[in-house]
Amino acid sequence: MTAISVTVGRPVAEPTESRAGTADTAARAVVHPVVAESEAPGLMERLRPMASGLARSLVAMAAGMGLLLAIWWAVSSRIDIFPGPLVTWDAAVELLADPFYDNGPNDMGIGWNVLYSLGRVGVGFGLAAVVGIPLGFIVGRFKFMNMATEPVIGLLRPVSPLAWLPIGLLVFQEANLAAIWVIFICSIWPMIMNTAAGVRSVPQDYLNVARVLNLSEWKVVTRILFPAVLPNILTGVRLAIGTAWLVIVAAEMLTGGVGIGFWVWDEWNNLKVEHIIIAIFIIGIVGLILEQALMMVARHFSYESR
User: pTM for this one?
Assistant: First the structure.
């Protein structure tokens, strides 16, 4: 009897427990999908917060633009020579109907003037990138170069970009090259400083691994430093393009020729204030497009987007 109670009792108890557990698991397996399916948000529920956020953004933007128009209208109603929104709109429709007419160097459509300015910014900005980004790597990589360039950059960086214009006219003897020189000199500082800061922030462990693997300096730069520093480089590029677009207008006012800055100054001489306001909006829109494009590129290469 003792043998039976030992050999039979345990096997009977365990299958009972196992069946109970199996049944309980099966019940949960059956119930869980039903509950999960009933709690899963539908497409409309998922889109509702996005639509709400978009609507809130549009309302805020409309409120901001409405406030700007109200201030503009209030100022124009008190100052007779200051054109209001409706007068400026009519002038914009007429002006933008043919933005690329060409009646000689001093009488070109606003489209050509914007393109000439973008060309100068592109050349000066490109040269600054070619020089500034490698120089930033050198400054950030080698302590001696950092100590050598720090007082020079600290001395020259706060100088207004327009202060470099007479130097450019003296050296290049040509207004177009002088404007490009101003763009170059104002764009190079953000690129050097952000690139150098990015190189200095690379963890020392990465460089120790490269030293253990006996990597060449070229491979250290291309395989380790460049991927790690790329977000910093793009931040410097974004800051530089914003500064360059700000400076080109003032530089072209002083150098003359063809360009949006010279066009604004020419319209002022002709007392066409509504055209100046149109140019202000166009300069702002182009600058916004440039900055948003570079921010999109920077977000693509940032670690947060991965």
Answer: 0.74
